[in-house]
Input
Amino acid sequence: MIDAYPSSGEINLQLKDATKAIQMIEQRYSADCDDVDRTDGLSMSFVNWRFNLCSSNTEPVVRLNVESKADQALMQQKTEEILELLRTSS
Output
């Protein structure tokens, strides 16, 4: 199962303005996105990967999970890409 859907696992990141950061990520990825779900934070799905980014209700952090379809390198690339965008937003 891990080979079929490589995952970053839950990554916690402290940000000054989580709402602003999540909005920035949504704007950045919306043009290429196949599906958006706001049930639990922001979930965006693409052809070969997806992510969920949400604010914690109990801690001053955002939580990021990235998953790909059988592509470890893509999952790692997208995880690093999103983390870098989040870090520069705060």
